Amino acid sequence: MASPLPPPGTPVSALPTPTLVVDLDALERNIAALAAFAQARGLRLRPHAKTHKCAAIARLQLAAGAVGVCVQKLSEAEALADAGIDRLYLSNQLIDPARLGRAVALAHRVQLALAVDSPLGVERLATAWRAGAQPALDVFVEVDIGQGRCGVPPAQAGALALQVVAAGLRFAGLQAYQGKAQHVRSAAARSTALAHAAALTREAVASVQATGLRVPLVTGAGTGSFVHEAASGLWGELQCGSYIFMDRDYADNEPDAEAPHFEHALFLKAQVISRSEHHAVLDAGHKSHAIDCGLPITWPQRWPTANGGDEHLILHPDEAPLPALGDTVWLIPGHCDPTVNLHNHLVAVRGGLTQGQVEAVWTVDARGCVQ
Ligand code: PLP
Ligand code: MN
């Protein structure tokens, strides 16, 4: 049987390990900082819910002025809709007719937007939409702006937008996202990559305008790049996700001068369960934190870490003495999104990691929703 959930008021010191903990004070400051950044520049903010998969956090983002949230999978959209989130943008490709049918059904109960990047995708979406009695639906044409993932080449954006309109669907604008460049460490190199992405996006806008259509909105951007999209004058909407938690990987980036400071807000509470003179072993391996972007760091004291497998993380001594058997050690995960997807709940604490107390336990509503 799973451990009982900690009731509100539980001291953080009493939480079992490993537990995924959200520092609410830091999370709220991160949400407010990006909301203020966007508002000051007249930009819409549609944060990516792939990071948290959690309706409670989506509600905090919406309360801070977000126009909706993005999701990456249909089942993720359905789970968040079931949990009461009613403004969703599926910023990814759907090509399976059965799934397109489900998406159209979802558009009858929430405000939905979808993305397309192929004539077949538009054709199938249009078929599903007509069969679904034509609910309101925003359709974005996705453009490949340098990542080499989804999206048409910029010069083909206009033709696809025309096809969207000819099918009777609403052309809502362009999806332009460069995910790879965000993890480039040097701020100057990221700036160069995003300048290239902006040039390709400009080309895509021109391709649409050459058909006589207007581009109502360009949407995209993430935590490692949004200052550049914001400064370009092209993007009207930001989709940052990880800014709420700031994982180790993003903290390794050289920050952009214009970016607000985001704090670490996602922590894994772990415990030393074995100890020798030369190492300490924690009870949290990669079944409780994702390691695709590297190992977590310990916080605030940094010991060198080594992979201990599914259920363990190994700490080696540094200048500071190793923690003792039974001690609590806090980890900052290497990559927040897949870490959250490993947990059923997020324990939200108020008042810090040492003195704080549980304020709420949030369900990860779309956990495991990969379809
Ligand atoms: N938009 C899209 C299409 C994404 O795929 C992602 C993340 O992978 C994001 C936005 C959010 O990016 P980040 O979590 O880096 O802020
Ligand atoms: Mn990620």
TrEMBL record:
One of its GO terms (biological process) is D-serine catabolic process. It comes from the Bacteria. Keywords: Lyase. InterPro entries: Ala_racemase_N, D-amino_acid_metab_enzyme, D-ser_dehydrat-like_dom, D-ser_dehydrat-like_sf, PLP-binding_barrel. Residues 265-350 form the D-serine dehydratase-like domain. The keyword Lyase applies. One of its GO terms (molecular function) is D-serine ammonia-lyase activity. It holds the Pfam family D-ser_dehydrat. PANTHER family: D-SERINE DEHYDRATASE, ZGC:162816-RELATED. Belongs to the DSD1 family. This is DSD1 family PLP-dependent enzyme. The lineage of its organism: Bacteria, Pseudomonadati, Pseudomonadota, Betaproteobacteria, Burkholderiales.
